[in-house]
Amino acid sequence: MNINLDVDVTEKENETTLHLKGEIDAYTAPLLKEKLLPLTAKQDHHIIVDLAEVSYMDSTGLGVFISALKSTKEHDAQLKLVNLQERVHRLFKITSLDTIITIETTVRGGN
What we know:
Strand 2, helix 1 (about 30-40) and strand 3 form a beta-alpha-beta unit. This protein has helices at about 30-40, 60-75, 85-95, and strands spanning about 5-10, 15-25, 45-55, 80, 85, 100-105, 105-110. About 35% of the residues lie in helices and about 35% in strands. The termini are far apart. The strands form two sheets. Strands 1-2-3-4-6 form a five-stranded mixed beta sheet. Strands 5-7 form a two-stranded parallel sheet. The longest helix is centred in the middle third of the chain and has 16 residues, at about 60-75. Helix 1 runs parallel beside helix 2. The protein is globular. It has one domain (about 5-110): Transcription Regulator spoIIAA (2-Layer Sandwich), CATH 3.30.750. It is of the alpha/beta class and about 110 residues long. This is Anti-sigma factor antagonist. Positive regulator of sigma-B activity. Non-phosphorylated RsbV binds to RsbW, preventing its association with sigma-B. When phosphorylated, releases RsbW, which is then free to complex with and inactivate sigma-B.
């Protein structure tokens, strides 16, 4: 089993940024979930997930972000995804998750 995801967490007062590097799939999603979900349970917390260096994501990754979104709504927290590469952004568009998850409009690696 090759786990190919690095999660670098930067915390400020009321904001946490997760810089992800690698791939989000069935093998790496549990690590992402372990790092991300506790942050979403903090009242009035802002979570930014930087996906600039995520080259691949499958439906398992989408599931983690859906769980995170539900948790943020329960705890009045905010989740924002930034710096998505085109192929990852396309997943959110195809599934219409881009209409319920805040995604910074800057898309990297476009045609």
